[in-house]
Design a protein that fits this description.
Rossmann fold, alpha/beta, binds beta-D-glucopyranose, TIM Barrel
Length: 720
């Protein structure tokens, strides 16, 4: 392949090469017809293949053939803790992207959830680097088997939306290595991602797309990445700097394609002798390599997958993911599942019972083939013997006329960005006349029904690209509505559909709480199946749900959601690493989620080098245990393995996820689970040595069903 690349490269003129390294449309670069190099087509990502835009305008192409499968958002996918489903989800995305004629899908989004307020959290997987990496590997492999490139994004530390183009993210070396980089490293090294997207933000003083430390030293030299680095749309700011680092393709949002930094301005610098042409050659090499891998060039072209979209199999796969993504947070007195026989008339109250979420949130918006909302899901499943009534319960103002120009055009222009980037305020209309009427109507309906299911939460006015939330509280006065309803129906079920955690001040009063992220086209089906017991919930939180924002590390240090500079003062103590180490109580902890059955963990055995734990063990450490389903129905449990120092220190988190297995068991059944660890799994980054080092000492190995439900503890004594 390298020979073929050199041969092609030697035939290209400077103009042709430059054409390949910058956008010639909002979602494409130019090809070279005379050499049979095709134009290269991109699409968002990550929740399906985005609808077509006109080549150079952020205006819909107006097609009727670009409806697609709408995937559960990445937060939902991570909640399945199921690697096979991550692969299946990637496969749907890749197949549909190729089916729509794309060469690269701008997915998956894997940034670490640093604060519950980040507007794009719903697009990201988790607060934990290990879980993020494991899921990313599978998503990428799933995508790329269809001869479409994944583009893992946004590299790196793009964990806030406020001032997203200019914010300078200040992160120390150890935190970078332990928290923010590992998932990207796995994505390129183990997932084999052909492409990676440079983020908008600055990292330690330098824009990510012009950042030699990030792109040259870490990504290329250390990790050996030989794929293509694509800029986020309008993330390049200077020609020389972008040309000199290992960024390969500049994409942007304006239609003056020839004036992009890596177009005519670069040509001029080369002609003046200020930049060497060989820098362009390197970029083109990386692009051609990706094209060969995608079977876009030469004889292999005839072997390229054709893809397909909207297949029945894809819908089934999306339903499977949605089912496992639903998280049962509370189930006092076994309130759930509901028994249809006892339900002559039920009420579904709350706007998320009806609202559709596919077509929102920013660049991950999707023109969904369909989306089953919770109300429809329940009606479809309950059938004709139960009357299902709906009441909105609270007011959401209707949007003004949608503009035909997409928000994205203004979202990355420094002058117009301010208009797009407005602080998301909580809006509460419960005191208006209409608000009062809606609440009274809902309370009256609740009183006359056998069951009440409240379905509220957030929507993409809050979970959205370009803005962070200002608070974790529920908008539209929903807390008041929930409390009023609980007074007349103390045993009502509360369902929250959202993309990021919310405060739940009514949590102790409630009997049953169910959480659903935006779970794709089958959201309502999966939710109804869980509520009615056709599916036993097995979703687990891939992020901590704190009580209030003030309890979070960034809530404490104030270093989030402000423009200018944001310092990661909490260091490696992100997510549960913070709550567990600093003993801060949370509403629901990382890894948590209930089932309709019960599991116990038994017989932990930890051995190294095939024998018992030896003091100088340096080889694989085998951990085994038995999981037993002691309840009366089949179900699935996620066995989580955390490690931590036996003696608490201020330096290291007390628990860190190092492995997990999801396992299905019939009632009464038990299975042996085995996991392996190596000395590297106990390592931390040593700034002086510039390497991960495992210090001698005693470590705990904790086998859990959540970060707090520690079933069994073993020890490993490491002496080197
Ligand atoms: C987003 C990316 C997206 C790109 C193209 C940007 O605004 O940050 O995630 O892939 O636009 O739409």
């Amino acid at each position: 392949m390298e020979q073929k690349i050199e041969q092609l490269l030697s035939q290209l003129t400077l103009e042709e090469k430059l054409d390949m390294i910058h956008g010639a449309g909002l979602f494409r670069t130019e090809g070279v017809e005379r050499l049979d190099i095709p134009a290269f087509y991109f699409s968002d990502g990550p929740h399906g293949v985005r609808a077509e835009f006109q080549n150079s305008k952020w205006i819909s192409a107006g097609n009727d053939d670009d409806y697609v499968s709408y995937l559960p958002c990445n937060s939902a996918l991570a909640s399945t803790w199921n690697r096979e489903l991550a692969y299946a989800s990637g496969s749907v995305l890749g197949e549909e992207a190729r089916g729509r004629g794309k060469d690269m899908i701008l997915a998956p989004g894997i940034n670490i959830k640093r604060s519950p307020l980040c507007g794009r959290n719903f697009e990201y997987l988790t607060e934990d680097p290990y879980l993020a990496g494991e899921m990313a590997i599978q998503i990428i492999k799933g995508i790329q088997q269809h001869d479409v490139s994944a583009c893992v994004k946004h590299f790196a530390v793009n964990s806030q939306e406020t001032d997203r183009l200019m914010v300078d993210t200040l992160v120390d070396e150890r935190t970078l290595r332990e928290i923010y980089l590992p998932a990207f490293k796995k994505a390129v090294q183990e997932g084999g991602s052909y492409s990676i997207m440079g983020a908008y933000n600055k990292l330690n003083g330098e824009h990510c797309c012009e950042n030699p430390v990030l792109l040259d030293e870490i990504l290329r030299k250390e990790w050996g990445f030989d794929g293509t680095v694509v800029s986020d749309w309008a993330a390049v700011h200077r020609t020389k700097e972008a040309a000199e680092v290992s960024l390969d393709v500049e994409m942007s949002v304006t239609d003056d394609f020839d004036n992009y930094y890596l177009a005519n301005p670069l040509k001029e610098l080369i002609q003046k002798g200020e930049i060497e042409e060989k820098l362009v050659d390197n970029k083109v090499r990386n692009i051609l390599r990706m094209m060969y891998r995608l079977k876009m060039l030469g004889e292999e072209k005839t072997l390229r997958s054709s893809g397909a979209y909207n297949t029945p199999e894809n819908r089934k796969a999306m339903l499977a993911v949605a089912r496992e993504s639903v998280i049962l947070l509370k189930n006092e007195n076994k309130k759930l599942p509901l028994e249809p026989k006892n339900m002559k008339k039920i009420a579904m109250i709350g706007q998320n019972a009806r609202m559709l979420h596919a077509n929102g949130g920013g660049s991950s918006e999707i023109k969904a083939l369909y989306e089953i909302n919770p109300l429809m899901g329940m009606k479809m499943l309950l059938g004709g013997n139960t009357k299902v009534c709906y009441a909105p319960g609270y007011m959401i103002p209707t949007k003004e006329q949608e503009s035909e120009v997409n928000w994205q055009q203004d979202s990355v222009n420094l002058e117009t960005m301010a208009a797009v980037q407005v602080p998301v305020e909580l809006r509460d209309f419960t005191d208006t006349e209409e608000g009062k009427r809606l609440l009274e109507e809902a309370v009256a309906l609740a009183k006359e029904c056998d069951e009440v299911i409240f379905v509220g939460g957030l929507n993409h006015d809050y979970d959205t690209e370009g803005n962070d939330r200002g608070t974790m509280k529920l908008p539209y006065g929903q807390d008041k509505v929930i409390e009023a309803l609980l007074q007349v129906k103390p045993d009502m079920t509360i369902v929250i559909v959202a993309g990021s955690p919310v405060e739940m001040p009514w949590k102790n009063q409630a009997k049953a709480i169910v959480w659903s992220y935006y779970a794709g086209m089958e959201t309502g089906t999966a939710l109804a199946e869980v509520l009615l017991g056709k599916v036993n919930p097995s979703g687990k939180l891939a992020e901590t749900f704190p009580y209030t924002y003030e309890d979070t590390p960034t809530g404490k240090n104030g270093e989030f959601g402000k423009p200018g500079k944001v310092e990661h003062k909490e260091g490696v103590f992100v997510g549960y690493r913070y709550y567990e180490s600093k003993e801060v109580e949370t509403s629901y902890c990382f890894g948590y989620g209930l089932s309709y059955t019960e599991f116990v963990l038994e017989d932990l055995a930890v051995s190294a080098d095939g024998g018992s734990v030896s003091k100088d063990a340096t080889g694989d450490i085998c951990v085994s245990l038995t999981v037993r389903n002691i309840g009366s129905r089949e179900g699935a449990e996620v066995i989580q393995l955390y490690t931590g120092p036996a003696e608490k220190s201020d330096e290291h988190p007390v628990k860190e996820l190092k492995n997990f297995v999801k396992i299905s068991l019939e009632a009464g059944e038990s299975k042996k689970v085995e996991m392996k660890l190596t000395a590297e799994d106990f390592a931390h980054y040593d700034i002086e040595k510039k390497a991960f080092v495992t210090k001698p000492g005693v470590y705990k190995i904790m086998m859990c069903t959540s970060v707090q439900d520690i079933g069994l503890v073993g020890e490993w004594n490491y002496q080197n």
